[in-house]
Write a structure and sequence with these properties.
Layout (H helix, E strand, L loop, with lengths): L3 E5 L10 H8 L7 E5 L5 H10 L3 E2 L8 E3 L2 E2 L2 H14 L7 H8 L8
Parallel strand pairs: 1-2, 2-3
Antiparallel strand pairs: 4-5
Helix pairs in contact: 2-3
């Protein structure tokens, strides 16, 4: 404890990509667990907003989405920047690495 759960929406072997399923999953995560959610492709950023609205955390990256817009290849930096803009425009705060480690009870280790 605390556990960290990823809600995987709209991916093979994941949950269907709809808000009713998403909220059913959110409503069954124990209160003392941490959770984040993501979807792939064009639904990646809408799930950033949905996760914030539902009280969770987010994840974005090239493994979920190669495109920033139609015909525009993404970079991880651009996807994170867009997610940060969405999160902050919703009035939420983006956690830095130290805050995440503290929340999850992780200890930073020296590189091997």
């Amino acid at each position: 404890s605390p556990a960290l759960v990823q809600l995987c929406m709209g991916i093979p072997w994941g949950a269907p990509n709809d808000l009713n399923t998403f909220m059913a999953m959110v409503n069954n995560v124990p209160d003392d667990w941490n959770w984040s959610a993501f979807s792939i492709g064009r639904d990646e950023m809408p799930y950033v907003a949905a996760s914030v609205l539902a009280g969770g955390h987010v994840r974005v990256g090239l493994e979920d989405n190669l495109w920033l817009g139609k015909g525009e290849l993404a970079t991880n930096e651009a996807l994170v920047s867009r997610a940060v803009t969405i999160i902050e425009n919703m009035g939420a705060t983006v956690m830095g690495p130290d805050a995440v480690r503290q929340k999850l009870g992780l200890t930073k280790q020296a590189p091997r």
